[in-house]
Amino acid sequence: MLGKGGKLIKQYAYDHTKDLHIAVNNKHIEMVKMLLDKGADINECDKNNDTPLLLSIGNKDTDMVKLLLNEGAKFNEYNTSQQTPLYFAVMSKNLNIVQLLLDKGATLCTNKKKKTSNLLHIAVENKDFGMVQMLLIKGFDVNAGNNTKDTPLHIAAKSGFVESLKTGQLLLNSSANVDVLNHIKSPNIAIESGNLEIVQLLLNKGANVNTCNNTKDTPLHMAAKSGVLEKRLIERNKEGKRIRTKRLRGFQKDGKKCIEKIDPLTRGL
């Protein structure tokens, strides 16, 4: 509230939300300007430890974000969850706000504890193609692993949606490693998820048909289990090597028909 003489009174509303936060949350840009002119702390936190900048990002209020940044809001500060405003901007799927933060020099490291950035992973998970494009242009590591060692390509391979094919193509064109070491490999993930288009895309980019996952299954084994793509995997053995099929005989029940179908195809390899 503003007292006599225009002096800002540090007063809380009934829920202990501060005046500047209330104005930001209500998208009242003129009131925000007036409060800032009268000395309101632009970086003060509310009861949820959110700054006005974080609130405006959550509201997808581009004009408010621009105002707060121009007025000196801190944009590289970590909140109590050790995450930055840029993290929340990517989560909110707002390209304009992300662009504003990056233009201001926002740090690419969005998690203080891990010292890594997982923004590209988030954009892929959100199927936000435009965001993926922007982050790649800005130099985000296309082969970086997250806390479970998945790369953005692995995230795309897991998805069963059409958008993942377009995203996967973009990642591969940006030098994503199709055979990057991981607890599970990209072709296997795509087969397990039933994403046949992504599997074909990975194979066309030279994914190793003999690469093993954490249980020592190759893509062919995964195909035998799931009943998809057995023949296509065999046809993609570019180097003329015999595809490993011995372990297929260990499968029973669900895999039996696939094994019977695969073995004759592999005899001539």
In short:
The protein has helices at residues 19-25, 29-37, 52-58, 62-70, 85-91, 95-104, 119-125, 129-137, 152-158, 163-173, 186-193, 196-204, 219-226, 230-235, 256-266.
Give a verbal description of the structure.
This protein has 269 residues and is mostly helical. It folds into two domains: 13-115, Serine Threonine Protein Phosphatase 5, Tetratricopeptide repeat (Alpha Horseshoe), CATH 1.25.40.20; 120-269, Alpha Horseshoe (Serine Threonine Protein Phosphatase 5, Tetratricopeptide repeat), CATH 1.25.40.20. 46% of the residues lie in helices and 0% in strands. The longest helix is centred in the middle third of the chain and has 11 residues, at 163-173. It is elongated, with a radius of gyration of 25 Å.
Largest sheet: none
How many structural domains does the protein architecture include? 2
Terminal CA distance: 80 Å
Provide the CATH top-level class of the largest domain: Mainly Alpha
**CATH level 3 topology of the largest domain:** Serine Threonine Protein Phosphatase 5, Tetratricopeptide repeat
Percentage of residues in helical conformation: 40-55%
- Overall geometric form: elongated
Number of E-type strands = 0
CATH architecture of the largest domain: Alpha Horseshoe
The multimeric state of the shown protein is: single chain
Q: Unreliable stretches, pLDDT < 50, 5 or more residues?
A: 3-16, 181-186, 238-269
Pfam family, one: Ank_2
InterPro entries: Ankyrin_rpt (IPR002110), Ankyrin_rpt-contain_sf (IPR036770), Multifunctional_ANK_Repeat (IPR051165)
Protein name: Serine/threonine-protein phosphatase 6 regulatory ankyrin repeat subunit C
Keywords: ANK repeat, Repeat
